[in-house]
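Most newcomers find our protein records easier to grasp once they have seen one. Each record describes a single protein and holds just a pair of labelled lines. A learned vocabulary of local backbone shapes supplies the integers on the structure line. Nothing more is needed to start thinking about how sequence determines fold. The record below serves as our worked example for the rest of this section.
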Amino acid sequence: MRENDMLEKDEIFSKVLRAGRRTYFFDVRATKADDYYITITESKKFTEEDGSFHFKKHKIYLYKEDFAAFTEILEEMTSYVLNNKGEEVISERHQKDFKKEYQQENSTEKTSTEKSFTDIDFDDI
């Protein structure tokens, strides 16, 4: 079998979810016995100081016999998170200007602390 034939057989159905620096690939693939399974790949982009970049990938293989249990647990876990924390993302790391805000808050705190500080010598007491 030619390499192209193998690739075509391997790529049965795919979906992509782009989420910031992460991309999730959901692929239906075939086993040697021509049964189907799913792969979920997380690809995360890392940029070096020189402007070059590389990707780190993590892959999960999900077989039909595990679909029901996987779906049930995933639904339970996502419901738990949404019910307890809502849909709003509260992580500071998701803010593009997080470092700037942190530095501004830090300098503001320092300034107000410096203004409220009184230098007292023990001889003054």
